[in-house]
Design a protein that fits this description.
Number of domains: 1
Strand content: under 5%
Helix content: over 70%
Distance between the termini: 32 Å
Number of helices: 12
Number of strands: 2
Strand order of the largest sheet: 1-2
Length: about 270
């Protein structure tokens, strides 16, 4: 029962930090220090990725009309060409991270999945958020339809940085990249959400295959509870973020990242 309660906390943290550009990885590291799950290392490595499926289902449900291209009009099935075009852009943006992730995922985990690298990534991208927002003037791209294929490919390269360096934050990296390219905050956030759908499904599938679906009953319960709580939490957080950025910028998240990165470094050095 205690492990189920812990899974609830992990689900809440995942649901909040996956969509706010503050690094779910950094928060999971801190949470695992405070309430470590009593599971095997292999299960935990899989759990911290697959729990994201709960979060991504919130995006699918909240934005269903914007991402599902098949409509039934007057008894006939019609295809929305704009949504098909959007999916083409999403796929193109996913290519850099997908190629590098499949080929070098384990290498990057061994090299960079540690307190110091996560903390540095948090701080560096926190500073970037503040600098970019201070210089951010009028956006040139205000809707997803205005995104060019060159622009989304460049956004995908920023997502690649997140795939290499944990703590960067996938949403943080793509939003920073989009803002630098002149995309509005709302369009940047929406594209980040949609970009997460194939990325998270793909990463989760790879982890499940590697784990060989060899769950004990308790492990399966922990995973399902974590995913469910992440889903419910994400529903609220996504709505909050979309309302927030209509009136505010991302600088507060930059300062938060810097403070969190400093805390992680402090915890690391205190536990040496």
């Amino acid at each position: 029962m205690l492990e189920i309660i812990k899974a609830i906390f992990f689900g809440i943290v995942e649901g909040i930090t996956e969509w706010l550009p503050i690094s779910s990885t950094g928060h999971m590291i801190l949470l695992n220090e405070l309430i470590k799950l009593d599971v095997s290392k292999d299960f935990y490595d899989m759990f911290q990725v697959v729990i994201q499926l709960g979060a991504i289902m919130a995006v699918v449900i909240l934005f269903w009309k914007q991402i599902f291209p098949f409509k039934k009009e007057k008894g006939k099935l019609e295809i929305d060409k704009n949504i098909i075009s959007l999916w083409g852009k999403i796929i193109i943006a996913c290519v850099p991270a997908a190629i590098v992730g499949v080929l070098f995922d384990e290498v990057f985990e061994k090299l960079f999945y540690n307190y110091v690298c996560v903390a540095i990534a948090l701080i560096v991208f926190g500073i970037l958020f503040i600098i970019i927002e201070n210089k951010n003037k009028k956006s040139k791209i205000n809707s997803l339809a205005e995104l060019s294929y060159n622009t989304v490919l460049l956004i995908g390269i920023f997502q690649l940085i997140a795939a290499i360096f944990p703590g960067t934050s996938r949403s943080g990296a793509t939003i920073v990249g989009a803002l630098l390219l002149g995309v509005s905050r709302t369009a940047a956030a929406e594209f980040t959400f949609f970009l997460a759908i194939p990325v998270m499904f793909g990463a989760s599938l790879l982890k499940l295959i590697k784990f060989s679906f060899a769950f004990t009953g308790m492990e399966l319960a922990i995973l399902l509870v974590g995913m469910l709580v992440a889903f419910i939490t994400s529903m609220f957080i996504i709505k909050f973020l979309m309302d927030y950025i209509k009136k505010h910028d991302f600088k507060v998240f930059g300062w938060y990242r810097i403070i969190l990165g400093a805390i992680i470094l402090l915890v690391y050095f205190l536990t040496l």
